[in-house]
């Protein structure tokens, strides 16, 4: 198995962040131009889209973590209610050499967890009540160590940017469609047939955006980095079997659905928060590596 250089992975994650931001700006510019064409002023549409995207990105970057926590129904945990969770997070943060993340809990029987934030200083770790009830102390420590590794490796920043990317794409795509339906048919002097052809092409481009976005998510939260977080987590808690056993319990969960999870936040979780499905397409667009392979790798350490 290839030996991973942790410091190089952190630097690589930061580079990926810049690439994602640059690609995101180009993508939004293209959508803005299409919007402007429909409104008969391509340059104005481009300017509106870029300014709007910049504003939305800043807002999401500053408040995105809070929005993720709210949409998933996470509530800040208290030390009195969940003392072991707090002690585990504090101990592993000390071992990782990063500030102690805040703790949140989701009232859900599913076994799952995720980390969010833009940097270690404002990160948080969220777990479901099902995870707290059904995992033993060592297994919980393995899961927290995995999430702590995502924080230390700056994976959480890339995760948040992917949420921003999806949000802005959906908003602009919806605006383009609504602008056309509301009668924004561009320059009235244009030939109608020509405009129709262009709009059909535009609709086709928008139709293929979903797999492209899925591919960006897959690149941002790659299998390599999930494997890296597993390996780092095992080293952090000094017990590979703890995380392997936890993943095994998660795999066997009869109801893995996290009720308030959605496609925009699915990649944040330690395992897919949706019901298990099989098939080539499912595997192709999966946000997580095969859980059996993750368990095998951990037990081979």
Number of helices: 12
Which spans of ≥5 residues are poorly predicted at pLDDT below 50?
Answer: none
Q: What string, H for helix and E for strand, traces the elements in order? A: HHEHEEEHHHHHHHHH
Fraction of helical residues: 55-70%
Supply the CATH superfamily name of the largest domain: Metalloproteases ("zincins"), catalytic domain
Average pLDDT figure? 80
CATH fold title of the largest domain: Zincin-like
Q: Within the largest sheet, what's the order of strands?
A: 1-2-4-3
Strand content: 5-15%
Architecture of the largest domain, CATH level 2? 2-Layer Sandwich
Terminal residue distance: 10 Å
User: How many domains in all?
Assistant: 2
Shape: elongated
CATH C-level of the largest domain: Alpha Beta
Largest sheet: 4 strands, mixed
What is the strand tally? 4
Compact overview of the structure:
The protein is mainly alpha-helical and 301 residues long. It is 65% helix and 5% strand. It has 2 domains: 6-70 and 157-189; 72-156 and 221-299, Metalloproteases ("zincins"), catalytic domain (Zincin-like), CATH 3.30.2010.10.
Report on the structure:
It is a single chain. A hairpin with a 7-residue loop joins strand 3 and strand 4. The chain has a 4-stranded mixed beta sheet, with helices on both faces. Helix content is 65%, strand content 5%. With 301 residues, the protein is mostly helical. It folds into 2 domains: 98 residues; 164 residues, Metalloproteases ("zincins"), catalytic domain (Zincin-like), CATH 3.30.2010. It has 12 helices and 4 strands; from the N terminus they run ααβαβββααααααααα. Helix 6 runs antiparallel to helix 8.
